[in-house]
């Protein structure tokens, strides 16, 4: 895209955020409060003058927790996210697992559809020529095929570029990084730095009709211990419990 005002070529950026993957990586760390993240402003920190964020898509699922307070906090989180992003939902599916020691069954929930949703949106948006470069916030190996497809000249006359923004403290596999490195001509992989993460304003919660949860404040490392999280296949639980 040519910017008539500057006379320079500007790369159109779409941002795809794997919400649970970020939460799973940062829970229990000093990056936890940055789940209250303005992903548009954060992505702009990695753009420079040659890129422009055109859209943010945030992928998540509504929690199935019976705790009303936790559901209310997620509602706040999603309301804030909706001010800067399109939200695409997967869903939680109930599961049970038998304990190998006592034989009792433990009930939990796994998030489904999010990886597929991200992959579909990345490919369809590329096919519709909506972006020149995708910013993908994840450390999930399951999204590698989508990255490979949109960067492959066999599939796209103009292959897209992808910047993979790895969440802080993410436990990435060697295979994940090696595969991305093999695509180095079209893919750059960057470890997100806490100093580059931009939080929503504290008073946004009040403007959205909610109290700001104390454990979302900077310096927190996670939710109250009494709150146990449902599990996701690889990377975590629900958003902002």
What key attributes describe this structure?
disordered N terminus, 6-stranded parallel sheet, globular, Rossmann fold, alpha/beta, two-stranded antiparallel sheet, 241 residues
Describe the protein.
This protein has seven helices and ten strands. It has a six-stranded parallel sheet with strand order 5-4-3-8-9-10, with helices on both faces. By secondary structure, the chain is of the alpha/beta class. The protein is globular, with a radius of gyration of 19 Å. Strand 6 (91-98) and strand 7 form a beta hairpin. Residues 1-8 and 227-240 have low confidence and may be disordered. It has a single domain, classed as 5'-nuclease (Rossmann fold).
Rg estimate, integer Å? 19 Å
What class do helices, strands and sheet pairing give? alpha/beta
Coarse morphology: globular
Quick one: CATH class? Alpha Beta
Beta-strand content estimate: 15-25%
Strand order of the largest sheet: 5-4-3-8-9-10
- Write the H/E string, N to C: EEEHHEHEEEHEHEHEH
Mind describing the biggest β-sheet?
Answer: 6 strands, parallel
Tell me the helix content: 25-40%
Separation, N- and C-terminal Cα atoms: 40 Å
Looking at this structure, what is the CATH superfamily? 5'-nuclease
CATH topology tier name = Rossmann fold
């Amino acid at each position: 895209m040519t910017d008539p005002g500057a006379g320079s070529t500007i790369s159109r950026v779409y941002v795809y955020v794997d919400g649970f993957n970020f939460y799973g990586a940062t829970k229990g760390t000093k990056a936890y409060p940055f789940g209250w993240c303005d992903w548009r402003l954060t992505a702009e920190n990695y753009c420079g003058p040659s890129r422009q964020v055109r859209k943010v898509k945030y992928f998540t699922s509504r929690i199935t927790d019976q705790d009303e307070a936790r559901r209310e906090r997620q509602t706040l989180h999603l309301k804030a996210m909706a001010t800067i992003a399109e939200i695409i939902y997967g869903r939680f599916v109930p599961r049970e697992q038998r304990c190998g020691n006592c034989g009792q069954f433990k009930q939990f929930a796994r998030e489904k559809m999010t990886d597929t949703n991200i992959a579909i949106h990345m490919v369809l948006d590329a096919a519709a020529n909506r972006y020149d470069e995708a910013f993908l916030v994840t450390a999930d190996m399951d999204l590698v095929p989508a990255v490979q497809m949109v960067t492959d000249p066999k599939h796209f006359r103009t292959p897209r570029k992808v910047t993979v923004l790895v969440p802080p403290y993410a436990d990435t596999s060697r295979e994940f990084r090696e595969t991305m490195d093999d695509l180095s001509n079209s893919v750059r992989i960057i470890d997100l730095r806490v100093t580059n993460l931009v939080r929503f304003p504290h008073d946004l919660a009040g403007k959205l009709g909610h109290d700001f949860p104390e454990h979302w404040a900077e310096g927190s490392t996670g939710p109250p211990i009494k709150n146990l999280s449902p599990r996701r296949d690889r990377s975590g639980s629900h958003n902002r419990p």
